[in-house]
Amino acid sequence: MIKHRIKCFDSELLVRVAGESRYELTIQASSNPLGLGNVLSSFESQEAAEQAAERFCTLFSAAREKGYYLKEKQLTKPDREAIEVERLFEPGLTVEAFVQQLD
User: Fold this and answer.
1) Measured CA distances, 30 to 12, 15, 49 (Å)
2) What is the three-state SS of the chain?
């Protein structure tokens, strides 16, 4: 069951109930609305998953501006080291600090 949905570029971020006290954040291409999407991470509360969705979209936007794209669970750019998506959910990571890592 979908609990939260936000548009993020040509995709949607969905927070789904994945079991008792477990919520998954998935990304799904808008061009394939019947697909199940790619699970980015799991969280213990709906609130944490919703906050992570908003945060992911903000950081993903910054990464796209620098030429990165999402490939499975990594942000990828030719000639650069891939960044694991899980890093985007680390507490204390600011947009500014993340952008500096992209340069």
Assistant:
1) 6, 15, 20
2) CEEEEEEECCEEEEEEEEECCEEEEEEEECCCCCCCCEEEEEECCHHHHHHHHHHHHHHHHHHHHCCCEEECCEEECCCCCCEEHHHHHCCCCCHHHHHHHHC
The reported pTM is 0.88
Q: What is the mean pLDDT of each run of 10 residues along the chain (103 residues)?
A: 91 92 91 76 96 95 94 93 94 91 87
**Cβ contacts of 96 within 8 Å, gap of 6 or more:** none
Tokens describing residue 18: 């994945």
- Round to the nearest angstrom and report the end-to-end CA distance of the chain: 38
Sign of CA dihedral 96, 91, 77, 80: positive
